[in-house]
């Protein structure tokens, strides 16, 4: 009798097809896969075969397009284990991909995770990483359907592939902006960069100076949380797509300045950006003030806010703003689309006009 | 006038959504993406959006399931730049994923590649890597639809995600083997391990001893090529699936011994393996003889042959063997499925029976 094998035939080889290489000896692969499968390998009618075969097999509904995105996060470039937990890192890795699907107007559905584990990595690290990823995925009912693990010579490498669906002809591309369209952004921007900078500051001597740098603990926590646990605007993307409200969309992952440039290049248009209108959180403004920075710079260059930047026909404006209000979506009009030759111009709240610099946030490097 | 931008708006931001991080300064990301897109970003009617947006968008045909697999290859674990070129590594990375889709009976269609580039990596390295990947994909008309690049602190990390299709209810799983089924394998096995070992041997002093180790140059080259440029058995998998010939299937990536165990565990069956019947290439036998090894050991434990191992109902045997012959597929019957309690037994060509050890090839570690 081999009760464990008899009871767990499915789990025994789960992910084994794609988990080719053995992780470091401190991690027993069999245990790890069993634990991951037990925790995250939920079944769904559309998953014909999840973890546990050569490949995953899923059904797609008629009338749907499949949306696919992949991201690779590397230790020391995209994250720093001194300032983030494995769970935080997992959350952000998943959120980045969820956000890409959101920016297409899609519904995220399935996750595949390829992981290289350094010698210092433990089973607990891996479980925490998945816990973070699945925490970001849970509100969207995304299923873990496959992956791969490997040893790494140095540092963690996390490659996440997300699969989603979008109804036929309803995907939002970067290329659809038209002259005269209005430019919008969801939520507030600049927060994640402020949070990252706070994490990389020397720790405040909290007792002696309870409001170090004149930033309240609440604001500090808000900004750090915006960096560590960003929200992918999935519902907002679906709303824009379903009601045909947006002509183009992108998620802000490289900074407003860089991502706006992507829309302009892809749509072959220019833009007039109203810097005075940029949505800034009170925490971001407080941080900028305390550090003698212009919060607009944070908003322009800060990556990884994962808000949606999109364009909409001026005719749609009443419907767009009304339905956003009804659904409780935070939305700000920040500019207008012009011909390509106009370039990317910005007008400050003092009325000063200038060309936007071609800079974007380049992670930690 | 910005002619390059005007002419290349699509290319300008191609892959940029997912190419979040910048590669090392020696590599200009813009140039690299433009080059990759020009070389490999072919359009296809089913690709609504390939490289160049937040995510890729593809259509799926009615009546098809989607097959997804991902693999992560890390330098020093899965490959060694002293014995393989970037092109070889790319070829193998793609072949491993093509083989996973083949083992499901599927048709590979789309490729996403996430890449971490070490400080020593050059643009030329990356282009060679893609050249190798696309060389493996070309016979199957697989399209590159997305990816991500990042800096790596140490060594190359290559994560490949392959998307394929299989008609409804025709996917081949590991779990379908039934008592009385016959066990088959395509091609020859053990070659890739012999090739890997040859690569890791000190270079032969060819002039003085033209047949070093009594292995001809032709055999040596055959084995090394089987390691560096494995063939995914896509046509064979499709044939098994389309004609409903196989009850279960897996590709041999961890070694016959390990992969056979996967089928037995998933199908909850035992197997009687005929070691005398294992298909060995003349080159593999010559290598084993020259090194005083038993080629059967190479065949049992050698991973990455990427042949298909499958079971078929005994009733299907005439049809299976006839249609294989018609199509020119190399096929060998190597055993029979028994009840679970039988375990995994093997009988040698001398008639000696023993339980198969639970070993599989664990790459370079």
Structure description:
The structure is a homodimer of 365-residue chains. With 365 residues, chain A is α+β, with helices and mostly antiparallel strands. Chain A has two domains: 10-167, PurM-like, N-terminal domain (60s Ribosomal Protein L30, Chain: A); 174-355, PurM-like C-terminal domain (Phosphoribosyl-aminoimidazole Synthetase, Chain A, domain 2), CATH 3.90.650.10. Chain A has twelve helices and 13 strands. The first copy, chain A, has a seven-stranded mixed sheet, sandwiched between helices. In chain A, a hairpin with a 6-residue loop joins strand 1 and strand 2 (56-59). In chain A, helix 6 packs across helix 7 (217-228). The longest helix of chain A has 17 residues, at 86-102. The termini of chain A are far apart.
At a glance:
The structure is a homodimer of 365-residue chains. Helix content of chain A is 34%, strand content 23%.
Key features of this structure:
homodimer, 365 residues, alpha+beta, 60s Ribosomal Protein L30, Chain: A, Phosphoribosyl-aminoimidazole Synthetase, Chain A, domain 2, 2 domains, seven-stranded mixed beta sheet, four-stranded mixed beta sheet, 13 strands, 34% helix, 23% strand, globular, disordered N terminus, disordered C terminus
